[in-house]
Specification:
The protein is of the alpha/beta class. The chain folds into 2 domains: about 250 residues, Type I PLP-dependent aspartate aminotransferase-like (Major domain) (Aspartate Aminotransferase, domain 2), CATH 3.40.640; about 140 residues, Alpha-Beta Complex (Aspartate Aminotransferase, domain 1). Helix content is about 40%, strand content about 15%. The protein contains 15 helices and 13 strands. It is globular. It binds pyridoxal-5'-phosphate.
Length: about 400
């Protein structure tokens, strides 16, 4: 990870094809296109690999999450349950839809703790939004049961988990909707991009309209198209989709490489006393973008992180100290510092996160370290790289 590590002539040629037609927009201009529809092609590729009936490509993953919620009819006065460990885009997208983010503890899966979700359900809850962090699945059986029991929608934030699966099913395909990101740091990248997938035809149609100003896309002449409701502009461009088409054709190779690279690291670290690994509800489905482990204390985690960085190991994350991925440092959000006044219904129902107790999450996150697994590593270098990381960790324990 990320897919940009292995850009080659496939991406360059795909972009050049689009530039030759000069049609950079995904809709309209059929005669000038010469049969080239990159956004449609990437949607087809996403449907094929996910096994889902409908796929909509958008400008980014945040827009995909917002669009999925809006298309589900989720908004003002509704609550959406999300985890303490995720990228800020998760609560941003819930707020953009007008709904209230209800933040809930994670466990040693680094994803939503189903018991904590169960306790957080209220009459206002509409959606449970698990985030498949670091390329591996949440405990989807338990979360699906909770959604069924309370008649809630499951929207998977699979933005970090394109290509990963749960018990043989592509992540994003198990909920009412699933969302992906193809931003510059993700395993498959368009530079900027995202997608919503669903098996629900009406949800797809509403998402399709919402993401393009309400256009119903039922006419060749955009000016003559109808509008059921207003939307936004969350469209992707043909240039971005062209890069994505080339990248997605490499997904199998990306997964094979990452799984092999991760195995070397995991084997080397398995021999270290006092270190345990993240619990994966389905180890086989892990996309292996990260290797994540726990040490015994917060202090140990800080010294191990420092030792790894000093040894020159790239992509080391102690998420507990990270400003963007863990609730502890979301001070802007917790102190309610927003750019403009936020709708009253959203805020009035929101817990006081400045005072909230997330010690159950802290217990895991304070001791947790992830190492990013690179696509571009050479096979012959793996044993030495893995040994270097293992030696650095041992030196700090
Ligand atoms: C990357 C990411 C997003 C947002 O995707 P963008 O394409 O950057 O908008 C949302 N959720 C998670 C968990 C992410 O990692």
């Amino acid at each position: 990870m990320p897919g940009s590590e292995l850009f080659d002539e496939r991406e360059r040629n795909a972009v050049a094809e689009v530039m030759e037609t000069g049609v950079l927009m995904r809709y309209g201009s059929a005669p000038a296109r010469d049969g080239l529809w990159k956004a449609k092609d990437m949607e087809e590729a996403i449907r094929t690999c996910s096994g889902v009936k409908h796929a909509l490509l958008l400008a980014n993953g945040t827009a995909a999450l917002t669009t999925a919620l809006a298309a589900l009819g989720v908004g003002s006065g509704d609550e959406v349950i999300m985890p303490t460990f995720t990228f800020v885009a998760t609560f941003e997208s819930i707020m953009a839809a007008g709904a209230t983010p209800i933040i809930v503890d994670v466990d040693d899966t680094l994803c939503l703790n189903p018991d904590a979700v169960q306790k957080a359900v209220t009459p206002k809850t509409k959606v449970v939004m698990p985030v498949h962090m670091c390329g591996a699945a949440a405990d989807l059986d338990a979360l699906t049961d909770i959604c069924k029991k309370h008649n809630l929608s499951l929207v998977e934030d699979a933005c970090q988990a394109f290509g990963a699966s749960y018990k043989g099913k592509f992540l994003g395909s198990l909920g009412n909707a699933g969302c992906y990101s193809f931003d510059y740091n993700k395993i498959v990248t368009c530079g900027e991009g995202g997608a919503v997938v669903t098996n629900d035809a009406s949800l797809y149609e509403r998402a399709d309209m919402y993401h393009d100003h309400g256009h119903d896309h039922e006419n060749d002449d955009r000016g003559a198209e109808g509008h059921l409701f207003p939307g936004y502009n969350y469209r992707i461009s043909e240039l971005h989709a062209a890069v994505g088409c080339a990248q997605i054709s490499k997904l199998e190779d990306f997964l094979r490489r990452q799984r092999l690279h991760k195995k070397h690291f995991k084997d080397a670290l398995s021999e270290i006393d006092g270190l345990t690994f993240r619990r994966l509800p389905d180890p086989e489905g892990d996309s292996s973008t990260f290797l994540t482990f726990f040490v015994k204390s917060e202090e140990q985690a800080r010294s191990v992180t420092r030792a790894l960085k000093d040894a020159g190991v790239e992509g080391v994350f102690h998420w507990y100290d990270n400003n963007w991925h863990y609730v502890r440092n979301w001070t802007h959000f917790k102190e309610r510092r927003f750019a403009n006044p936020i709708p009253e219904a959203l805020l009035s129902g929101m817990p006081d996160y400045a005072k909230a107790d997330f010690s159950a999450s802290d217990r895991w996150m304070s001791r947790c370290i992830s190492i990013s697994i690179k696509l571009g590593w050479k096979e012959e270098d793996l044993p030495a790289k893995a040994k270097k990381a293992a030696d650095a960790i041992k030196s700090a324990l």
